[in-house]
Amino acid sequence: SELNQFLGKAALATYAGGGGETKSQRLGFRELEFVEGDWQYRDSYVGFFRSWGQEVVWHSDKPFWNQIYGGGMSDEHLGDEKFALETFTFLKKALSASEKKEEFQPRGPNNFKDDDWEYVCEWEGDITNFLGDEKILLNGKIVFTHDFMGGLILSRKR
């Protein structure tokens, strides 16, 4: 539950909440970071119309949890920067629409609607091991998708 509460805070303090970027550790990537006590979160992603990213949580300076995600705009909207920015604005709204700190949500809520926009997220598993996808629809038509997977990192003792 401590990890889940931290993930909820981190999500709202970074991309979903419009948090500022930090110095990237990877060439060409954009990165966002949130630190609280012994917990550290970093979201590192690359791309725009199609993107791939990784979220990592460290506890006491040890990798603890990971999520990878990727996908993007539907083919018909590739190259339409104005529409993509509108879609990402809605995505941020959806990702911050629910109480992530109380119940594990790898991305956003199962369903969120705002006027003609709809966000749908489905996954299997729990915070320790999960797999899923998210979609954004406008007037019932899919305009954006992401696949994601992740879980705990269990390292050997040295």
Q: What tags apply to this protein structure?
A:
globular; nine-stranded antiparallel β-sheet; 158 residues; alpha+beta
Helix vs. strand class: alpha+beta
Written as H for each helix and E for each strand, in order along the chain, the element string is HEEEEEHEEEE
User: Quick one: how many beta strands?
Assistant: 9
* End-to-end separation: 27 Å
**Into which percent range does the helicity of residues fall?**
10-25%
Number of helical elements: 2
Strand order of the largest sheet: 1-2-3-4-5-9-8-7-6
Oligomeric grouping of the chains? single chain
Mean pLDDT: 92
Largest sheet: 9 strands, antiparallel
Uncertain segments? none
Strand content: over 45%
Rg, nearest Å: 15 Å
Net shape? globular
Description:
It is built from 2 helices and 9 strands; from the N terminus they run H-E-E-E-E-E-H-E-E-E-E. The protein is of the alpha+beta class. The protein is globular and about 50 Å long.
